[in-house]
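User: Could you walk me through two proteins back to back? I'd like the raw sequence and the structure tokens for each, with a short line separating them so I can tell where one ends and the next begins.

Assistant: Of course. Protein one, sequence then structure:
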Amino acid sequence: MRLLVVEDDRDAADYIVRAFREVGHVADQAPDGEEGLALALDRQYDVLIVDRMLPKRDGLSVIGELRAKGVETPVLILSALGQVDDRVKGLRAGGDDYLPKPYSFSELLARVEVLARRRGGREDTVYRVADLELDRLSHRVTRGEDEIVLQPREFRLLEYLMKHAGQVVTRTMLLENVWDYHFDPQTNVIDVHISRLRSKIDKGFSQPLLHTIRGAGYMIRDGAR
């Protein structure tokens, strides 16, 4: 999943982002309501995690503005205000779920997964190309009857390629969306990960699915086509 965490407590935000990345998700963060609103309007996210009490613009105002502009991305509200009236106010403002502080990451993760699943249904969380299948929620990858074990970065790489199946994916696209680099570090990190990924999803199968498009980038497609 691609997530946005809008939280002004730097330690809390760093912890949440790091924890989501450790389980293979992509997480951006914003330290205030104005930046969070700008990111939520500019980029596509599966779920927004928004603290209620934020500088510059409070969380409920951010959610209200998003809904007014037609953005229907699910929002989970985090707040130290946990009374019934507080939760009702948050949900009526456009939030989809409300999690009072303190909370455990395991509960936060479970609630985010439910929101992502509810939004798009299973078809939006499972990518398929030929006999290769990737489940974004369970983090399970299979090809035919074989389960493929991937490291978190390999999973993110394959997820991005499968999301854009049949399209050429450039190095710049991979650096920005899989490695969160907005510059080219001039290393062979992409080549190394592509090679490892290819050996895991194509080795032993008659039809290769991961293709190098010389001078352009990479593509996942059904080799039989």
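----
Protein two, same layout:
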Amino acid sequence: MRFGHTFGRWVLDSLLPPRCMLCGEMVDEPGRLCAACWQGLDFIAEPLCPCCGTPFAMPVPAGMLCAACLAKPPRYRRARAALVYGRGGRDLVLRFKRADRTDMAAGLAALMRQAAGPLLHEADLILPVPLHPRRLWRRRFNQSALLAQALGRQAAKPVLLDGLERLRPTPSLGGLNRGERRRALAGAIRVAPGRRALLVGRAVLLVDDVFTTGATAHACIRALLGAGAASVDVLTLTRVVRPDIV
């Protein structure tokens, strides 16, 4: 069986050589980045806020929260992201969801898995942030669902793709501040009928591609906790970080 898999992989690579997810240079395996593109990414690593995952500009005492989490603790338990939304991180997101590069899902999920740490290990269930059916029809796929599916396969965790749903389309959130985003999302997301029992008492890992202000995540979390989920962690591929923080 292993020989058959290896031979099949050799044939596929011979016909369609694996290429860098960003620049198209040849790489050793599918879903990888070449050395130059890898160096162009801003990975999020310690030191960071143990709650929201925002990177600190300098070393801080263990367990120290950022000012934002101290002032107003978020409803999620923890949030983590693999990359800063800038330079290569932004290019990865846009290529994935706007250039129909669904083949990138496994490689991007692998980056997220490295950043997840205990969030993924402790999760009982993985859920993606939902798209409204109208937007899903236009885009043809939900990028968050593809990432959630890939994470579930890689970590052997159950994935509930239809656990959440958007009741109405929301306007583009780009350019809106935190308050405007939350007002736009108010009442827009709910737990899908018939899925509440699957969430009761479960530790949920919510998956999305970008964390900006957290408004979308909080709308999902409000619905999940209201349905009886024990806790919600958030894992994204990228997050927007103020230049004065990193």
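Residues 2-15 form the longest helix (14 residues).

Let me know if you want the two compared in more detail.
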